[in-house]
Amino acid sequence: MAVDISPKNDGGVLKEILKEGEGDELPATGNKVSVHYTGTLLDGTKFDSSKDRNEPFTFTLGQSQVIKAWDIGVATMKKGEVAMLTCDAKYAYGKMGSPPKIPPDATLKFEVEVLGWTGDDISPNNDGGIERYTLKAGKDGATPNDGSLVDIHLVGKYNDKVFDERDVQFTLGEGEASNIIEGVEEALQHFKLGEKSRLKIKSKYAFKTIGNAEFNIPPSADVEYIVELKNFEKGAETWSLEGPEKIQQAKLYKDKATNYFKAGKYSLATKMCMKAVEYLDDGTVDDEISSERNQLLLSGYLNLALFHLKTNDHLKAKGACDKALALDAKNEKALFRRGQALLALTSPEEAIKDFEAVLKIEPKNTAAIKQMAICNNMIKQNIAKEKKLYANMFEKFAQADKQREEEILRRQPDVMRGTLGEWGQEEREGGRDATAFEKENPNILMLNANGTGEFKNM
């Protein structure tokens, strides 16, 4: 029996199931769906068939790549399901039709078989790291944003075995504190209220190269979650707040950052601190609260530098110090932490300048004095290494030059061998034969060898 599945219940799309599908999953907007189909007019005239071509047809659901009736009808079908879709012209090709096969205002019938689909890629970089498969569509409307308080039920699976099942409420962006992986947090920003979806999550958005001992998840493991968004309260958007409200939000996130840092959750501390800075560093704060804003912003950058140093992200630590020093050029903490970052980046000559600046502000800063000693020691070691490197380099150059000279000498002719200095008949005056003495002593030059008697009395 055909059922009206058109959004307005106007009879525009009727669906009759010819063969039941598998499971409970339905394709969702953004999924790439593969189908076989046969299209006919109401009189039974066939105008198109993927089966005749023996080539499945693939399209992205909900992206208007096909007629409206298909986007509506296929979204209600399970894998393996076969259904007959009867499509009114306004959900098909309308008043124009599609000449020459489909006349104007034509009602069409499609027998559609859903072969399968790939998930909706909702990963931040569209790299296939998070795929969503909708089990139950949510209500149209808003979706959670970063900072929203969400109430969810989740089931985590690895190799088809459940490792985590619970109801949990947490603030989006702080899921790590509740052992919620990044992939689930990213996905929830695409969920609608009441939605239930299966998520296939690659390791880079899950437990990464570390794994999870509590859940018995090995390093670099891909996992699945079934997540239902039961309720949520949206977080405040930066653009929607006035100056004093931004100050309050920044203070809230600053306190969270401090608490997470004390608890050893450095990644969360950094994230909260960055959100505090985001509320302050948008250039729209009123003059009357600019002093408080600048002080909070300076504190935020100083904390960011500390957090980055703690996680060995020295380049970002230096960047945070640069921004702090733009607000207060003689800030002792900013100079000291930038010096630490530069030292870790093996730039002792630059680092020592910051520690010297610290001592100009506070001559008794023993920590800066110790850091200067480390800088000087590193500089000396670098100079020694350079000397050794250059000495070895010059030695290698000298050895190479010596080898080249020896090679040149080896290629020179030996004047004591060959025809030079050896008396052959062609070298004697008149071409005479060698004497017995000359034959016995070929390398001795006979001064009177021309037989003239010259040098006779010498």
UniProtKB/TrEMBL annotation:
Its EC number is 5.2.1.8. Keywords: Acetylation, Cytoplasm, Cytoskeleton, Isomerase, Methylation, Microtubule, Mitochondrion, Nucleus, Phosphoprotein, Repeat, Rotamase, TPR repeat. It is found in: Cytoplasm, Cytoskeleton; Cytoplasm, Cytosol; Mitochondrion; Nucleus. TPR repeats lie at residues 332-365. Residues 30-118, 147-233 form the PPIase FKBP-type domain. GO terms for molecular function: peptidyl-prolyl cis-trans isomerase activity. Pfam families: FKBP_C, TPR_2, TPR_8. GO terms for cellular component: cytosol; microtubule; mitochondrion; nucleus. SMART domains: TPR (SM00028). Its main location: cytoplasm. It catalyses: [protein]-peptidylproline (omega=180) = [protein]-peptidylproline (omega=0). This is peptidylprolyl isomerase.
